[in-house]
């Protein structure tokens, strides 16, 4: 290669993998990881596995929200809250 | 992903004048334009405050509750903790700067409330070890049999949440804020009051330790065969 961007090795790519998948890298550093994954099948396989894992976590842990009556109770307490600034 | 804006925003705060307490008004709606001179400096009435709070803070109730549930470990305490958090946030609403990150602000209040009032009562020692984490070893174990991680999908929600609950406090809160609620590293750093570098390393270890734990569940349940039958 002539003057390309800095090339990173497998260790660097995997060190940054989560930051890459979390979109927390600068565009330059993200590009270096992307370039490495594009030509390194073993690292790409790890990346796919970890992507599946993170999607799974996100999909399977958010089902539960606050109970309906909790919201009602909170609103009632706000309405009658004596210590709120502006309340009485 | 939502970016933190609080460092940039310098809005003087349109709710800063609400510290005034008119006597004898419980839940009565207060109308604009009928105030005496003494009251004329007031920008936000209690009604304004409640409306602003309902509009801006309450939409995050599910997030507050879910994080409370993972911090406290049971629903009854999570409800108390959520209610306490929202009440504190309401009382401190004059400190919230409009346009800044309300979710991080609420979660910071939640975390302080938990640490001050609930943590002592929390469950037993963490069940998941995060000290001996080796990177990407689950993938090494499954790369022949299940490189796409299909075994994850067979796990039941209860097992997943139980595994998360087994993480040590600081790793659990970091993982929940990131992977359940989708906060950025900067937001998590703000809420948990540590440097971004600490967030990164905690998140890495929490994710890898949790993955290992889930893999063990999957093996136990027969969803996947261990690499070596030894």
What does this molecule look like?
The complex is a heterodimer of chains A (88) and B (230). The longest helix of chain A has 20 residues, at 41-60. The radius of gyration of chain A is 23 Å and the shape is elongated. Chain A has 5 helices and no strands. In chain A, helix 3 (27-39) crosses helix 4. Chain A is mainly α and 88 residues long. Chain A has a single domain (10-79), classed as Arc Repressor Mutant, subunit A (Orthogonal Bundle). Chain A is 64% helix and 0% strand. Chain B has 230 residues and is mostly helical. Chain B folds into 2 domains: 43-121, Rna Polymerase Sigma Factor, Chain: A (Orthogonal Bundle); 137-220, Orthogonal Bundle (Arc Repressor Mutant, subunit A). Chain B has 10 helices and no strands. In chain B, helix 3 packs across helix 4 (102-118) and helix 4 (102-118) packs parallel to helix 9 (185-192). The longest helix of chain B has 25 residues, at 196-220. Chain B is elongated, with a radius of gyration of 22 Å. Chain B starts with 45 loop residues before the first helix and ends in a 10-residue tail after the last helix. Classes of the chains: A mainly alpha (88), B mainly alpha (230). Chains A and B meet through helix 4 and helix 5 of A and helix 1, helix 2, helix 3, helix 7 and helix 8 of B.
């Amino acid at each position: 290669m002539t003057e390309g961007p800095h090339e990173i090795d497998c260790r660097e790519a995997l060190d940054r993998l989560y930051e890459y998948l979390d979109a927390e890298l600068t565009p330059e550093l993200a590009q270096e990881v992307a370039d490495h994954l594009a030509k390194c099948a073993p690292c790409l396989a790890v990346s796919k596995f970890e992507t599946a894992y993170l999607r799974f976590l996100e999909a399977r842990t958010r089902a539960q929200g606050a109970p309906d009556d909790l919201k009602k109770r909170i609103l009632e307490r706000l309405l009658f809250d004596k210590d709120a600034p502006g309340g009485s | 992903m939502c970016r933190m804006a609080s460092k940039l925003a310098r809005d003087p705060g349109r709710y800063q004048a609400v510290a005034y307490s008119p006597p004898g008004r419980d839940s009565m709606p207060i109308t604009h334009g009928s105030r005496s001179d003494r009251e004329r400096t007031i920008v936000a009435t209690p009604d304004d405050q409640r409306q602003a709070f309902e509009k801006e803070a309450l939409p995050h109730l599910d997030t507050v509750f879910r994080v409370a549930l993972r911090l406290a470990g049971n629903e009854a305490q999570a409800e108390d903790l959520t209610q306490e958090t929202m009440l504190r946030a309401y009382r401190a609403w004059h400190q919230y700067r409009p346009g800044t990150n309300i979710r991080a602000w609420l979660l910071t209040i939640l975390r302080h409330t938990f640490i001050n009032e609930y943590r002592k009562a929390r469950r037993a020692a963490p069940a998941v070890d995060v000290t001996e984490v080796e990177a990407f070893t689950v993938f090494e174990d499954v790369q022949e049999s299940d490189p796409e991680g299909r075994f994850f999908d067979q796990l039941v929600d209860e097992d997943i949440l139980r595994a998360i609950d087994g993480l040590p406090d600081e790793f659990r809160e970091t993982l929940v804020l990131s992977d359940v609620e989708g906060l950025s590293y900067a937001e998590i750093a703000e809420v948990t009051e540590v440097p971004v570098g600490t967030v990164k390393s905690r998140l890495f270890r929490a994710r890898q330790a949790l993955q290992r734990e889930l893999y063990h569940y999957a093996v136990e349940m027969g969803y996947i065969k261990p690499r070596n039958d030894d």
